[in-house]
Specification:
five-stranded parallel beta sheet, nine-stranded antiparallel beta sheet, alpha+beta, 3 domains, Dna Ligase, domain 1, D-amino Acid Aminotransferase, Chain A, domain 1, Rossmann fold, 10 helices
């Protein structure tokens, strides 16, 4: 491979994940080139190689990526056809375009799990909300839009046929509601040489009503055999896909202690933010190692940790005003990450707080303090 100083590496997407990739790449003396439609995206002020442009326009993505040695993503909503063109013209594109295309469509994701024998919750494909009426016996279920869902958007719980008025438009699927004991995530990496690694499983606690992570605890409070089962599933998935990069595998543990794959993300993920402070190798460094063909780093926990998402408060929209920062930063083991988004909106991810501690009780106390004290409102 080229020396890091002459390597030209690009990222599609300039949000907070790209920002933390840039921070990690600086340790390797790699300047990341970034494309994002928002001229004030979090990455825009961190690299002199920022380009404002659409991630959906074929020619824009090709023009940005054609001179790169390696190209990666920090968001799935990109032009996969353009990625395929770049790959066929000699650019190393990781994760591979055909995998990105499959993951972009939740219907295709679920069909892949089913076809390849991966445990997942029962599902029914639907073409429109009217199709739900034919499956009343399948309810309660979660309706998921086929494409473009993120941060809880594109998901609607349908308990009975009376809820069809709340159903989402367009193609999607009905996913049978699972009697969940725990929601967990395992982040796994694989490079082009086939070298793999897994991070310890983390336990996810979701924001009630918003379908996005409120906070997480690492390590997950699960039996060793369940963790091994979850890691085994994640490893089998990247190997069968021959995936290159970092893959976050979100899973359910049901009341029978079965592990079911929920969804996957082919990039650094919200469930791995805490690895910056709490693991020997962060998820961002691990992603870079994977796409550059380097050996994976040690993923071991340095100490127990938690992560709290800082979400825009409901009822506020406008220039962000962060309250309670001084109070939480006075607490040992609290580390603040603000994303640099100028405008807050209800439930928009504006930053996160990583918490380290000696045990789960200490982490829980600090999580409650952060959630109570730190608010993102507008001026």
């Amino acid at each position: 491979m080229k020396a890091f100083t002459s390597l030209k590496a690009g990222v599609l997407g300039g949000g907070q994940l790209g920002k933390m990739l840039i921070q990690s790449a600086a340790d390797f003396n790699i300047d990341l080139h970034v494309l994002d439609p928002d001229g004030e995206a979090p990455c825009s002020k961190l690299t002199p190689y920022f380009t404002q442009g659409s991630l959906q326009e074929h020619d824009t993505v090709v023009a940005f990526g054609k001179d790169m040695d390696v190209l990666t993503i920090e968001i799935e909503k990109v032009n996969a056809q353009a990625l395929s063109w770049l790959e066929s013209n000699g650019v190393q594109v990781y994760p591979q375009p055909h995998i990105v295309r499959m993951i972009q469509d939740k219907r295709e994701q679920k069909k892949y799990y089913q076809t390849h024998g991966f445990p997942t919750s029962d599902f029914i494909l639907i073409n429109n909300p009217e199709d739900i009426k034919q499956h009343s016996s399948f309810l309660p279920a979660f309706q998921k839009s086929a494409k473009d869902g993120y941060d809880g958007r594109g998901v609607q719980k349908i308990n009975t046929l009376e809820d069809i008025g709340k159903a989402l438009p367009g193609e999607g699927l009905l996913e049978k509601a699972v009697d969940i004991k725990k929601e967990i995530s395992v982040i796994v990496s694989r490079n082009a040489k086939g070298q793999t690694s897994t991070f310890p499983a983390v336990e996810l606690v979701y924001h009630e009503g918003q379908n996005l992570v409120d906070y997480l605890i690492a390590p997950a409070d699960i039996a060793t055999e369940i963790e091994e089962k979850a890691k085994s599933l994640a490893l089998r998935l990247v190997k069968e896909l021959e995936f290159v990069g970092l893959l976050a595998v979100e899973m359910f543990v049901n009341q029978q202690d079965e592990v079911l794959i929920n969804e996957i993300a082919p990039r650094p993920h919200n469930s791995g933010h805490q690895t910056i402070e709490a693991n020997i190798t962060s998820q961002y460094e691990q992603h870079l190692r994977a796409i550059l063909g380097l050996p994976p780093g040690d993923t071991a926990l340095v100490c127990p940790s938690a992560m709290v998402n800082l979400l825009g408060e409901p009822g506020y929209q406008g220039e962000a005003n962060y309250q309670g920062i001084e109070k939480i930063l006075a607490v040992p083991g609290v580390h603040l990450h603000l994303y640099g988004k100028k405008i807050t909106k209800p439930y928009r991810k504006m930053g996160h707080v990583t918490i380290t501690g000696k045990n789960r009780q200490e982490l829980a106390e600090k999580v409650n303090l952060v959630k109570k004290s730190c608010k993102v409102i507008s001026y």
